[in-house]
Amino acid sequence: MLRKDILTPLGIFLGIAVIFLAIYMAGGYDAFLAFISLSSFVIVFGGLFASLFVGFGASEVKNMFKVLHTTFRRKEVPIQEFIHTLVHLARTSKMDGIIGGLEKERSRTPDPFIQKGLRLVIDGYEESMIRKIMEMDIFSMRKRHERGRQIITKAGELSPAWGMIGTIVGLVLMLQQLSEPDKLGPAIAVALITTFYGVLMANLVFMPIANKLELLTEEEAFLKEMIIEALVSIRNEEGPAILRDKLQMFMIESSEKPALFDEPGGDEGYEQKRI
Fold it and tell me: Which residue has the higher pLDDT, 223 or 133?
């Protein structure tokens, strides 16, 4: 079931709200308005995206927004239900045969990773070859996700740098207007607020999301490793009871893993499953 992940936007909103609430409590409405600077916003965000276009290109920057979007929406599927599905495949192969039974199940399953694995089992590949081919798929998934995460991480690294550039611009403007004290205030504001914007975006948005995407990649890889174990068990004609015990043990041995798992459903997949 498709659901929105409210914790990510809630965390971002809460972080911004706490900062500006503290500003308002300390200096009132005027202090709050002092932290709103269009010129600082243009320097940080305009410069940031200019750097990303130079370093990654338009297609990668466009893909960054897709990756960001995946952190806000996920599919929720109970992991025990997922284990039951794999056990059902093992039971079907025992009752109807690997070729006849699994061919029907392969056409029914919506998961391309399971479909690919079932085809290898039906075609009679050796266990070592099944593992090798499926692990190559996991490796490719990691590389795809790494490309998306890399640009988010770089945005987090560049945001404070552009804040410092804005600070330099503000200081230069300030030094040019020392003879006009009434103009020093706006120049100092640009100098300080751009650094504030850059550090805020890096530590509240980009870096936390990059860390989250890394976690989701590891969780999806873990889930796919479970699928590989199930496929190998089916290929070796082990019974469904044995497979269930193996998968449950697999979960116990990896109990330090978080309780959310990605759904392997596409190149851009960063969807989670909940235990």
Answer: 133
Residue 93 pLDDT > 60: yes
Q: How far apart are CA 131 and CA 138, in angstroms?
A: 10
Give the whole-angstrom CA distance, residue 51 versus residue 65. 16
Angle at which helices 207-235 and 127-176 pack, to 10 degrees? 180
Q: Give the ranges where the chain is alpha helix by DSSP (H).
A: 7-34, 38-41, 47-56, 58-70, 79-96, 98-108, 112-122, 127-176, 184-201, 207-235, 240-253
From 57, 19, 22, select the one nearest 200 (Cα to Cα). 19
Closest CA to 116 of 267, 219, 247, 227: 227
Q: Are 209 and 99 in contact (CB under 8 A)?
A: no
Q: Which residue has the tokens 């893993």?
A: 257
Locate 191 and state its tokens: 């100098």
Decide if pLDDT at 162 tops 90: yes
Residue type, position 170, single letter:
G
Counting other chains too, the contacts that 142-148 makes at CB distance below 8 Å and 24 or more residues apart are 142/217, 142/221, 144/267, 144/268, 145/213, 145/216, 145/217, 145/220, 145/270, 146/217, 147/60, 147/63, 148/63, 148/64, 148/66, 148/67, 148/213, 148/268
